[in-house]
Amino acid sequence: CTRRGSVFIRERGRDAGTRGRSSNCSSGGAYPRATPPRLRPPRCSAIRLGHCRASPFARLPRSACYASTTMGDETSTSASGSAQEPAAPAVQGAGSVKQQISNLVALSLRATVPEVDVEPIVEVCTGKFGDYQCNNAMGLWSKGKGSGTSFKNPNAIGQAIAKNLPACDVIESASVAGPGFVNIVLSKSWVAKRIQDMLVNGIKTWAPILPVKRVVLDFSSPNIAKEMHVGHLRSTIIGDTLARMFEFSNVEVLRRNHVGDWGTQFGMLIEFLFEKFPNWEELGSQAIGDLQVFYKASKQRFDEDAEFKDRAQQAVVRLQGGEEKYRAAWKKICEISRNEFDQVYKLLDVQLEEK
User: What's the pLDDT score for residue 104?
Assistant: First the structure.
């Protein structure tokens, strides 16, 4: 959900699924088994394996390429080829390499099929025939055949897409393979310049520009008086990974850890504490000792003694009602658990704020 420019993301150990299929990249493999999802140029997306084919056609040379490299607020421009052509305008926050290739393919698609509203399908090419690949040709052919299109086959569409790629410093060459797969080779000089910019200006200049300024991440959320199990560890690692990615992208991240629900287990623990150690306030943490052992003992008493169970349930009501004695006991139990959790967070180098 979004509100006032903020995004709230909850991650509590849910399984992360994968979408789509990856296809083999070889000179003689089968066609892709599934059409990759469409990618909008301005946004980041997961990179899946593309499908490359050996090309029977010569690579189409880029006759005039001009540099328009944007790294954060730093923009450098250089030219190759004809000096008479104007340089392509610099774009602030051009995004990742894949985003920039997608933007160029989008311009080519508009020039190739202006009557069709289509989004670029760009994948990483893992073979030796290119760095990225545009896979729009077959889909466009399926849509256009029989409607008076001037293209004879998907390969002709691929040739047109390659030809209409704008002159730029990013692309060294483009070739068409099989039924219109457009293999794109990055310019080595452009790659070298990107690496040089990274070394000089730092890796932060590569951060994507996201449409949000603040993100709330609710993760980890271990159970009080219990050890963190694998579900909590998974949520902690996934949440911290997301937080680091957003922070790298210059987004303010609110790392939230929700602990200490006022459930039956707290009434059970508090009542057991009062029963075993009437002077628990003087003893402090020593009264509880090992919280795991203390929890198991109180749970056994709760399950076997109906009168104790009734008192524990009433303790929850008093805790929720704000009675000072019960609130103080609740805080002490949370403090002991928190100290144990913090040892795990310290080992994982995870920063969290309790709320």
Answer: 95
